[in-house]
Amino acid sequence: MGIKELYNSNIYYIMKFISTKIHGVLDFLMAFLLLSIPFMMHYDIGAMVGRIFIIFGVATVIYSLITRYESGLLSIIPMQLHLVLDILSGIVLAASPWLFGFSDIVFMPHLIIGIVEIIIALTTKSKTSLSL
Hints:
Elements: H1 3-8, H2 10-15, H3 20-40, H4 48-65, H5 79-99, H6 108-122
């Protein structure tokens, strides 16, 4: 089954069960979590182990605020691009302990939250109630 056939299949649409309205709430909860983890886990925010959470937390807030969906304020980027940014963010966050060389210190929070971010993005509908 190719990408086009998968996109047009029922399986693709069954996997998309999170509405964009719920996704918006999850975005800001994720941003809060990302910004809180370095302090809750006592990570040094001057070192990449903690700084990566701050960077992705701030980035999540910014691109969520400019997304064309129910939780966005400025409606600049489409929801599809937002979901791509979520997936890329999740991949980099999950891989960050190895990319930035701190996997010998800690890797599980980065890996788990990155994977959760990817799953949420892959299971979110790309059509908003604003586009109806």
